[in-house]
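Kindly review this protein for my students:
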Amino acid sequence: MTISGKTRLLAVVADPIDQVRTPELLNAYLTGLGIDAVVVPWHIRAEHFTAVWEGCRRLQNLGGLLVTLPHTARAASLCDSLGDSARQVGAVSVVRRLPDGRMHGDMFDGQGFIGGLRRQDIEPRGLNTLLVGAGSAGSAIALALAANGVGNLALANRNRQRAETLARRVARVHPHCPVRVTDPDPSGFQLVVNATSLGLHQHDPLPLAPERLDANAIVAEVIMHPDTTPLLRAAEARGCLIHRGRHMLEEQRRLLVNFLELSRGGAGY
């Protein structure tokens, strides 16, 4: 990869940042497409985020921001405009800087997750599904699962009130999808999704009891590093089919390139 004055700058913003694999995976993808852009990690504390945001409006070669925890909701509130998914979720995963400095955000975690499943020959339609985690990623995935016809959707979250709020949102947007709030007991579910951050750090507790998993269940992660989380290892030992978090990002890459209006062989602006 050669970086020049014409290279379009993209930044992944997070706190912490060391677990983020987006630069590694996306830079290789952009290079393969011949797109003159580079993704760099920015470690930004929550209390500094607004100041950095205002500076981003003035960076003429900034193509956009790839947003992850804990900044997804704050970034959505600062955007000048939002896509439908971001508006429904109340958070963004990507922001495009427009030529005049305005910021337009959207959320691709849900589409990326569903697309990642299907690229691995997993069809969520009709599956009895447990989703653990009701943060921004979990909310986007819940709405996408409902939109794509899961048989029924059970939501579990450490803060039950947040899960209940998400359940009401899903029911309002997708009234055809049976949705309820439950405890994180995976028994009886065909698809189990961990959309929490548990598993990101070495000593995290498991988000659910793996011994309660049905042996024929599909267990999916959103965590990308480590590639095989403790939950996935335990699920695999139970005989479950596992689905790694990187598959979501691999599918999001195409969506991001289109959204950010990056052009092949050029600077994209």
User: Anything to note?
Assistant: The chain has a mean pLDDT of 95.
